[in-house]
Specification:
480 residues, mainly alpha, 2 domains, 19 helices, disordered N terminus
Amino acid sequence: MIFIKASIISLGKTNKSLIGNSIRFFLTRFFSTAASLIVMIYFSHSLPKSEYGVYQNFWVQLTLLSSIGGMGLGLLIFTYPPEVLKSLVLHLKRKHIVVYFFILILVGLCFSMLHSADVKTWLELGLYSSLFFIFYTFSILLESFLIAVHRHKLLIISGIAYSILFVLIGIYTFKQGFQLSTFVKLLLPLSVLKVAVYLKSFTGFLTSDEAKQSTGIELKSVISLWLHLGIYDLLNVSILWVDKFIISLVASTTTAAIYSNGSFNIPFIPIALSAVGNATLMQLHHAKNNVEKARLMQQVGKVLSCIAYPLFFFLLVNRTEFITFVFSSQYAVSVPIFLCSIFILPVRAYSNTIILQNLHKGKIINIGVAIDFTVAMLLLYPLYKWQGLAGIALSFVISTYVQVFYYLFYSAKFLRVPVLSLLPLKNWTLKAVIFLSVSLGLYAVLPHSSTMMLVSGIIQMLIALFVLRYENKNNHALQK
């Protein structure tokens, strides 16, 4: 009993900083994501489907190839505390940096060729898009490092400034008669400035006495984990975007626009999941035993369900109104695709690879990705024949559920705890009942219009915040 009580008290202190760190991580990427969403909505209402498809294809291809350029380093960064990161960076040799940038340039050239129909187009846009790709990918890497060393204030301020300019560039590009080349050329200097600001803070950390270098680092272990995480990051992002990527290459831009909007990933969910996941990884460094780790995962599940559950039931009930409001009525045909896509949200309440990453089980993580991809490919064609484009989206949702159950089984196995001890099932069931009832109740009472949908969304968001506050207070009570 004394051991369990000590574990609960320690966990309470850990979770207090977990929620605070999660919020800070979320804010560092919130504003740039919001700006991208604003411009996307603006273009979907203003541009013809064919031109809007060109814009969407650009970001789909950029997202997928930037994961190749990132080489899993972003995930690796959050696995170690600041002192270890400092030591690892200072151990890098010039040849390592040269090889990395050579790979980055090579992938950047491939990226520029994807959206260039001919040599003339590539000559006009290729150099700019290649450079933009390099600075975009490198800024993500620097941003991850600065988050890990707690440069949140700088990231939030720079994020706000970048977001405002990004939206203004989007509006200006449309007013000038939308051309992808114009958009990229205007974004390039903004990306260069962003990297310059991040680099200054990055080098400042390396030369300061803020964190002493860690000793006794096992480089073989680090390299092994990095290779596994690099493969995982590439395959995981590929699975998330491969359907859109393939359609961007083989289908018309109009079809690509319809499918992209239907399989639209709610942008704040990934950064919220990433924020909580990264904060959890940092807290797991302080967990003294497997009991603490299991309890921490339960608390993470309670926090994530405050995001995933209300959003899922809101979108499930208001799916038609949401699509027509966000993307305009010309994309109503995307609703069946969207309905299939949102069923991935409930499973996002479990942070599936955190324990495995903490335990350096890279091989298990990559096997899970391979299972995910294999199941998706096996289901893709039959479900496409059954449900059309919606079937493609559904195949990736089903494969994700299979992958999560695989990770859950092995996380419990390595921690030597029961599988259900990692999941707050009673908590999730109660929240599912509450948010489903609220969504259906508001939909039945309020008129079906865009304005009322927003009112419903605000009410449910306030309820979700109240529930999150309750979870936080309940966590604080564990300390007493």
